[in-house]
Amino acid sequence: MAASEKARAKAEQAVGKVAQAAGRATGNEKLIAKGRAAEAAGDAREAKESLKDTGRP
Fold first, then answer.
1. Hey, CA dihedral for 5, 7, 8, 12, is it positive or negative?
2. What tens digit of pLDDT does each residue of 6-40 get?
3. To 10 degrees, the CA torsion angle through 20, 33, 10, 57?
4. Which residue among 36, 44, 54, 55 is the one 20 to 30 A from 28 at the CA level?
């Protein structure tokens, strides 16, 4: 996995977790949903990069 893509995936996951926590603390359902979406995007990016790595010799 490229280091920059790995860092970007981890950053998206972290942003998502923070947004979810903030949404729960304030009772803001939209913010919770946005946080889940950001975390899922980070998970997908990480999975894509891992898949690319397994195909390399």
1. positive
2. 899 999 999 999 999 999 999 999 999 999 999 99
3. 150
4. 44
Pairwise CA distance, residues 52 & 55, whole Å = 5
Using a cut of 0.85, tell me whether the model's pTM lies above it. no
Contact 40, 16 (CB under 8 A): yes
Residue 34 near residue 24, CB atoms below 8 Å? no
Residue with tokens 């998502």: 16
Q: In angstroms, rounded to a whole number, what is the distance separating the alpha carbons of residues 47 and 11? A: 14
Determine what percent of the chain falls in helix, strand and coil, rounding each to the nearest 5: 90, 0, 10
